[in-house]
Amino acid sequence: MEIDFYRKIVESSPDFICTFLPDTTITFANEALCRTLEADRNELHGRPFLEIIPEGEIVPAKEKIASLAPESPSGSHRMAFLLSNGEKYVVHWHIQGHFSPQGELQEVDAFGRDDSERTKADALLAKGARREKLAAQIISDYAFCKSWNEFDTITDRTLKLLGTENRADRANLFQFSGDRVSNTHEWCARGIPPKKEILQRVPMESASWWIDEIEKNEAFHLPDPETLLRKDELGWRRLQSLNVHSLTAMPVEAEGRLKGAISLENIPKGFFSPEADFPLLTSISRVIGKTIALLEAEEELRATKDMYQDIVEKQSELILRVAPDWTITFCNYAFARYFGKSPDDFVGENLATMTPEGFDHLRKLTLQSPECTSERHVVMPDGSTRWQVWHDIAFFDGRGVLKEIQAVGWDITELVTAQQAHENERKRALALFENSPEGILASWDGVRIHEVNHAFCRMTGFLRDEVIGGPLQEMFSPGVRGISLNIERLLARTSSGESAVEEGTFSTKTGKKLFLSLLALPVPNAGEHEKGMYVFFRNLTALKEKEAQLLANIEKLHTTFFQTVEVLAQTVESRDPYTAGHQRRTALLSFEIARRMGLDDEICQGVFLAAAIHDVGKISVPSEILSRPGKLLEIEFSLVRTHAEEGYNILKKVDFPWKIPEIVRQHHERLDGSGYPHGLKGDAILLEAKIIAVADAVEAMASHRPYRPSLGIETALRFIEEGKGHLFDETVVDACRNLFACGYSFEDADMAV
Are 265 and 168 in contact (CB under 8 A)? Predict the structure, then answer.
């Protein structure tokens, strides 16, 4: 009965009771401990006590157990458990050791009591003390703030302290300016993106709901933005778009005027208490408001002072005030810097000691004429001369007595220098204009001629007076001047800001024909029509004559090439009468195939010439072999096959403008490498040689030979079609077949030549 009584007490106790061996193996755990740990009693019995406590508590627990001794058999230890629901459970443990007569620890009784509420109370007290200390520090910082730079530094630090202390995502200080809200400072927790750029200069009406609250001089805490739906749906949507889940705001005011607001975003639920936290935060916001008001007042006072100081001290103009006896009573910093000194070096000095020039113009200032302007030059300390313009005003008292003269000066040295440079540049430009070897005509409006140079007059034979002022169209009129140039086209190009080049013939005053190149350049803003232009005349008559002579020489050279090729072709055919006309017909067909393929005229000419002498190498083959009517022996045929390489050897010494020697060498090569003399394949064979290969095969098969009659054009075309892609180039074969399909014949080609 007595055992049951004590068991009931232990099992019904709200405190935790357990017993464990020296190695912390649990031998007993009461119901309260099992329930809190959400474990069955049988699961706990036999487990080490150290396994059921948090990892961070193991070392302190070991140390506390190890400290038990017969002379000190008990001890206390606070331990925090993290429950499955995420709550933190604080337990105050009292342990009692039981020892053997020899002093060895045999068993430990552990009694645990829930200490969470007291821990929370201690935490609240510590939080309150910490926040009061924090507020005192912030208020002290602002109390000694003397400038906006210090204000920025203190505010950034304050927002960080407030945001961190309240576990907010973001802390802001808004300042109100007119009808806008300026987000002047922002602090963000780690990982939270800034919104300063988004919120900067936000119109006040876009946040009217919380500004209304702030203007009532009331702080508010909005733990759930959905409650805002009852006040301002637009405001609720804006908070949603900005990812704001909770919002706390306090007014920043001074002397009854609202200066702005402090806001904290996304404070964890239950962490902020308006009753406990608003008083401290409000005191902080008020000291910020007073600091802003003081800085604004100082700034306004300083601005007023700086405004007047800027007028006098920070102007670039030189300002000087002198007494009637020419004693300097004041000069600004610009005047002092101008002479490399300070204002103290001039005040009290006599103006006459500064410049050798007199002051008669100042003596002429009267009550009726108190102002004058003069230009003068001054020799500087380094010996250089500077030019100045001075505007002087005399001040008189009520009796008309001169009291003081104020002089304001401007340095115009650069202007004078620029004017001189401009005049020098104008003279240089005029010299270039007049001495240019090319004729130059200028029109400022695109209608009349306003200027011409000496070269133009020499070139055209006109006098300057005969041209200047005359209509531009008349100078370029084909009926009068015989020029082929289009003035309208030149004007259209130059009016759009572009340059234009024209070439044509021009009749001089004496009727001499010149070939001229004209370059027209626009002259922006030259006249009211903005059509001004310079026209440069270059005489290309001699060059044109040399060009004509060169073209004639080139034509002669081409004729010589063709004659040379024709002689070579006739030489071959004189040794092989049975193939008379073969090279010529092959050349005509090759030329037409090349044209059908769309090749340019220069390539087509090269193909024709190469085909016209493609068998020139047969000169080295005995004529009896060439004219034999029967089938050739293998050794004889090998000798005939040498004609391609021999043709190359003969022609390579001639400097053709085309690759004729190489084309002749390759005209028996085939795509698959079965040709001769080198067995070239594919792209290694020149296109011209591929064309001649097809034309040569078609002409040979379609013509009569001593050893066989003509096989006919259809047989020849069928042969190259069968060889397309492996013997002959596909494009060349297709062009050849299309040519004959369109009516081409060797007979017509012979008659056309």
Answer: yes
